[in-house]
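Why does residue order matter? Because the sequence determines the fold. Keep that principle in mind as you read this record.
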Amino acid sequence: MARDGSAQRRAQLIRGDFVHTPRLGEIQIMHDHLLRTDEKGNIDYFASASLPASEDIMASMHAIPVPAGAFIIPTFCDLHLHAPQFLYQGTGLHLPLMEWLNEYAFKAEERLDSDSQLAERVYKRLAYRLLEHGTGAVMLFGTIKTETNLILARVMQEVGQLRAFVGKLSMDQSSRPSYVEDSAEASLAAAHDFCDRCIEMFRSLPEHRRLVQPVLTPRFVPTCSKGLLSGLGDLAEQRGLRIQSHMAEAHDQVQHVLVEHGEADLDVFRNSNLLTPRTVQAHCTFLSSEELHEVAATGTAIAHCPLSNAYFSAEPFRLREALDAGVRVGLGTDIAGGYSVDIMNAMRQAVAVSRMREGARTVSKMRSTSPAADVDQETDDDKPVSIDWKEALYLATRGGALALDLPEGCGTFTVGAPFDAQWIELVVAERDGEAIGELEFFDDATKPGVAPLDLEMVEEWWCLGDSRNRRGVFIQGEVVGWKITRSAEFTLAGWSGEASG
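Structure:
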């Protein structure tokens, strides 16, 4: 199978159970459905396998069976990840944000910019890990050197076959003198150059295989002059480019911007025309409910990174308020500010943080109504602020796809949408329904494969599942990661921890 998309691929037909979240809080389990892709990897048929039309299709084309105890679900979207920081993930999380950047982040990024072979190794391993954990679309911060970011773009396209938005950092100010661009003009010229070269790199591919795109990336306000920010805003508008940055992330960063600029992050970005429907801003933990409505009005999306917020922000993100305000929200791992590249962990952490917020709200409300309470104490009569696992799954799939403005229908199984999906197995059918990984099913009457797939089974996977349950990954209808295990007859590509090449 050609990895460059030059060869026409065959249509595929898959029969089994499918799970998706078309709307916030809603999960649909579609039992025994038939899904067909066309030669471009888009879904051109999806319906119950019992329909006469489905039977006619299966009479003329072999259907790949998804065994009992398994299901197909859309791939995850990671809206915020620092690719060079994968070099040191899981270390150095003991410092405040601004100190951490100087001690760890800038050094690692500078190291990759000076060693192209190291960059290649780091980025290949990152691509493999993303696929292993079911991520099909990712927005990446890179480094300041154009050539290093072109390595990242090439690796994501050739090795990972991921939908990747690759950002060359723009920063004309830095606390590390050796890691900064010479001027706003030089930074803007480099941004132009990277975008041109990144687009040109994949121009020969069919349009549906051009999975990697450039994204303008002012690191954050402290590393960018106002001239650079306004220049990037003009460039984004002129060329219709995506934008990513960090906004209102941590107490020390917020105070730094107020002192240096005399206004808040939100105002700086808005005045630079960098809050657009093509923008993803990470974190936003220090935005009030009113400011979240302002963000919604611009069409800007937010990458919620609950794990890194726990380390580097003194505030949890107001997730429920953002959703209620109409902000497009997805999840991010924020490697290496977060230590896990697995979006499943981000989902669980998002729920946990929201539950803690709800607990704090409930306790505060109880105290404010007690006889001993200060009569001037502000009370909170708003509705609950927690989210549940179904909503978190939406954020990781359909919500993330909308935030990234992926092709129509991404994150769902809809005719016309690209087939980006994960094959999940809960049990080993040949071993009398033995559970896989951390999962356990003690009651035979409700065991996957014996009983029909239901919400409780999906929830248990959501809570306890890991890469051992992930049989394979499809991007744009193509198998990009596959484990040769157990019995499925569908073995197009061998995969043992690394994507097949």
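The chain has two domains: 12-75+411-482, 79-89+119-343+388-403.
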